[in-house]
Amino acid sequence: MEIEQVKKRIEELKALINRYNYEYYVLDQPTVSDYEYDQLMKELIELETKYPEFQTEDSPTRRVGGMVLDQFEKVVHRTPMLSLSNAFSEGDIRQFDQRVREVIPHPVYVCELKIDGLACSLEYEQGILKRAATRGDGMVGEDITHNILTIKSVPLKLRDPVTIDVRGEVFMPKAAFEQLNREREANHLSLFANPRNAAAGSVRQLDSKIAAERKLDMFLYQLPDALSLGIKTHSAALDYLDDLGFKTNPHRRVCHNVEDVLDYIREWTERKHDLPYEIDGLVIKVDDLEAQALLGVTTKSPKWAIAYKFPAEEVTTVLKDIVFNVGRTGAITPLAILEPVQIMGTTVQRATLHNEDFIRHRDIRIGGKVIIRKAGYIIPEVVGPVKDEQYDTLPTFTMITHCPACGSRLVRNEGEADHYCTNRNCPAQMVEALIHFASRPAMNIEGLGEKICALLFDRGLVKKLSDLYRLTGEDLSSLPKFKEKSIHNLLIAIEKSKENSLERLLFGLGIRYVGEKASLLLAKHFQSLDSLAQATYDDLIRIPEIGDVIAQSVIHYFRLEENRALIQELKDLGVNMEYRGEKTIEAESFSGKTFVLTGTLSAFKRDEAKAFIERLGGKVTSSVSKNTDVVIAGAEAGSKLSRAQALGIEIWDEETFLQRLEPFRSVGKRK
Ligand code: IVH
């Protein structure tokens, strides 16, 4: 093929594939077979591989995945990503309407579904997707472009070459979530609690292959700069997003008074389970964008919108049995085994009963009916018994006296609600301790979930925590379904965990009452495990936020010979025992400094540049004085620049400014 023809064919293929993608993933109206689509994609990949000079940013081959990052880059949002305040009742909605009407006498509202996923911002430059970021703390998020590219409904190229930010919700459809968990179960991996966690877990991956496999989707719901584009209402902004090729949620409705809003709420409270994705409520927004601006925002949320949260749902089922779980601290938790029941779209078979008192106070009896409550995909709980005729005939609950795992006598201390198994060699506790040690907030050993921990223990491969670091490939090859790749990955993950900063190890050791937060406080304060081990009660209690209970528990932990021996072993095996510092964003170039902007910047509008600086802790003033730290001079800077020069103030040109911002804006690089 002639070079010109190649170029033309590539353009043709890109246009076709992008169109088919749109038809399939946005409109849900495919017009070609999967086979045809795959053939076109194959041809494009071949041509682009042969002629890499024709690869462009709108090429669907970018979606395949494969980009692997070392770390997530920070992204400062051009406008803060706010969250919403919540309403839980009709009354709350009426109050919201009242507050709005104090400022806007006849508001029009747009009602939308509140998609249960995670907020994400997309930046397009001249119609091309350049960057995608998580919400983060609302000011600074993380660059997840590599993963968002894999979401087929997100356009790589817009119909108009506009430079805009858009925001929306990345989510995992219910069916994809259920299938993913089925696969994970088969592979002995820990299960995701709900579609939102699964979606969040997928976009927080450094390797985009994982996101590419996860069937994520995205609805766009906000165009922050709509007014400056000449758009007058939120509903028109959503229509415009449709026109640009984005996927917006079709179930929005414009309501002209609060009664219509309440009708929408009633309707969707009924219909919410019919959707193929989870919603955790509804969002009500003032439609008129100038009215929105008049109403304004608080530090956390806009005053022109509110989220209506669905109430938790309750159902009745039969309590078939009560079993007892032994936790890593030896605490015994009674668990309800239920006649399977559907609640909020999922089947529930188990629910926690917390402790003996919980069951006694409610007088919950095996064999009787109970009320179960669940909000979202959150762990279901037993509300109480249904006291029908049969109820009186059932025996009352009696607490077990011996550990179901090792048979030791249980202890319940004065003033405590839980029963404990105090046998330190209790196998159930050991497995739980191992699961906790490997878990994400602790040593974060990927691939070492509940099932594998239990297997390792049952096979005698790990008898205590330190044995983890003695595992060999041969040991692992004896486990079912463990192939070369999974063995290799697990060994690497274990090895990597040796480098963790102290707070992870500390949390992982499972010292009673020492949670994630206390672990971090202690690690920061003592810097090494050795000095923590030598700390006295007084040393500990002196730390703000460390109270008597934690201090006692830490002292007790290090007093025990077996714990000291475990730590020595971990140390000998190469596990890091030092605090390595928190990952914070380094904004020294901006933080605490006073800036003046002058001249024209080409990459930003003036107020965007200002917002960046402010979000990184700097201040922007309008006139140059001896208190000015830096003057940022764009093109055709005038008197302010000369004044800065005269005063000997540091001057950055746009290039320098961009360089300093780079750590907070740059797109992930290929490895
Ligand atoms: S509007 C400033 N609309 O809910 C307004 N949010 O608690 C920003 N969400 O962080 C949000 N569906 O992640 C909006 N249709 C919708 C939404 C929605 C889901 C999420 C979003 C936001 C959170 C607010």
Shape: globular
- Biggest sheet features: 7 strands, antiparallel
The helix content, as a percent range, equals 25-40%
Hetero groups: 2-(butylsulfanyl)adenosine
Distance between the termini: 32 Å
User: What are the low-pLDDT stretches, counting only 5+ consecutive residues below 50?
Assistant: 666-671
Individual helix count: 24
Q: Write down how many β-strands occur, each being a DSSP E stretch of 2 or more residues.
A: 22
Helical/strand content category? alpha+beta
Task: Give average pLDDT, whole number.
Answer: 90
Provide a quick synopsis of the model:
With 671 residues, the chain is of the alpha+beta class. The protein is 37% helix and 19% strand.
How would you explain this protein's 3D organization?
The structure is a single chain. This protein has 671 residues and is of the alpha+beta class. Helix content is 37%, strand content 19%. Strands 12, 13, 14, 15, 16, 17 and 18 form a 7-stranded antiparallel β-sheet that branches. It is globular. Residues 82-84, 112, 114-115, 119, 135, 169, 221-222, 283, 302, 305, 307 line the site of 2-(butylsulfanyl)adenosine.
Q: In terms of topology, how is this protein built?
A:
Layout: H1 3-26, H2 34-50, E1 74-76, E2 86-87, H3 90-103, E3 109-115, E4 118-125, E5 128-134, E6 140-142, H4 145-148, E7 164-171, H5 174-186, H6 195-203, H7 208-213, E8 217-222, H8 234-244, E9 253-255, H9 258-271, E10 279-286, H10 289-295, E11 305-309, E12 313-326, E13 331-343, E14 346-352, H11 356-362, E15 369-374, E16 381-385, E17 410-411, E18 419-421, H12 427-438, H13 450-458, H14 473-477, H15 484-497, H16 502-508, H17 516-526, H18 529-534, H19 537-541, H20 548-559, H21 561-572, E19 594-598, H22 606-615, E20 619-621, E21 630-633, H23 639-647, E22 650-653, H24 654-665
Parallel strand pairs: 2-11, 19-20, 19-21, 21-22
Antiparallel strand pairs: 1-6, 3-9, 3-10, 4-5, 4-7, 7-8, 10-11, 12-13, 12-15, 13-14, 13-18, 15-16, 17-18
Helix pairs in contact: 1-2, 12-13, 16-17
The protein binds 2-(butylsulfanyl)adenosine.
